[in-house]
Write a structure and sequence with these properties.
Elements: H1 5-24, H2 42-56, H3 65-83, E1 99-105, E2 113-118, E3 123-127, E4 135-136, H4 137-148, E5 157-167, E6 172-183, E7 188-199, E8 208-221, H5 232-235
Parallel strand pairs: 1-8
Antiparallel strand pairs: 1-4, 2-3, 3-8, 5-6, 6-7, 7-8
Helix pairs in contact: 1-2
Length: about 240
């Protein structure tokens, strides 16, 4: 069982405090004639602080296997996102390094979307996920992503936020929020989805075995101008 986070935070705080005290008191002095003067001041403390943080905030070192796996899977999703930031310009080969040999997924943007709100500023549409695994391998994922991103006409911003992880004998299942923002021929489009992803358990980094669409929504705006603006200066 993973140790309580409070104990881990306490150990981290103690290590950081020791690093700061050591740097402030000159506990690690350079050899004669080397690193004198400004190098012994705040820079030493900052470096020790950073080293202590990187050492302690490593879930793979202290038994937090689930958290460590979560971070590695998130990095793999980021790589996939970077590969498709220019819709229409990516190839299936760019996705292959992140996929397991048995990868499969369904449709990532439902064929039918129902309008749930329409006004002068934006329109909101939602779709019901289509069951079944229509796509397989890197070519299949490329086709699914092209279908999902078909409305975009320029460079995208794609973000993933994993929020739930479940372990099984042959795979690890992670739910993730997916957000895509970019221009279209007529304005700007935001897509919000929830994916259930399955990952290999015996490889590091893990490889993606499947994607299942859980929820899908998109917000279309007829202008590329942002819906909200910063009005702080006008108020002050």
């Amino acid at each position: 069982m993973a140790p309580p986070r409070r104990r881990r935070a306490t150990a981290l705080g103690a290590s950081l405090l020791a690093a700061v005290v050591s740097g402030a008191c000159g506990g690690s002095r350079p050899a004669d004639g080397v690193g004198t003067g400004a190098e012994e001041g705040p820079a030493v403390i900052r470096n020790d602080f950073r080293k202590a943080w990187n050492l302690e905030d490593d879930p793979s070192r202290d038994g937090w296997d689930t958290e460590a796996f979560h971070e590695r899977a998130k990095e793999q999703l980021k790589h996939i996102g970077h590969a498709v930031e220019e819709p229409g310009a990516f190839e299936a080969a760019a996705l292959a390094p992140f996929l397991a040999a048995d990868f499969a997924c369904g449709v990532l943007r439902p064929d039918e979307l129902a309008t749930v709100h329409e006004g002068s500023e934006f329109r909101v549409r939602r779709g019901v996920p289509v069951p079944g695994e229509r796509h397989r391998g890197p070519d299949g994922l490329a086709d699914a992503l092209r279908g999902m991103l078909a409305e975009y006409s320029g460079e995208l911003r794609i973000e993933f936020k994993p929020f739930d992880i479940q372990e099984a004998d042959d795979a690890v299942e992670i739910r993730s929020y997916v957000a895509v923002v970019g221009p279209t021929e007529t304005g700007r489009l935001e897509q919000h989805a929830t994916w259930t992803t399955r990952w290999t358990v015996d490889l590091d980094p893990p490889l993606l075995r499947s994607i299942e669409l859980v929820e899908f929504e998109e917000v279309e705006r007829p202008s590329e101008e942002p819906l909200f603006a910063d009005c702080t200066a006008a108020v002050l």
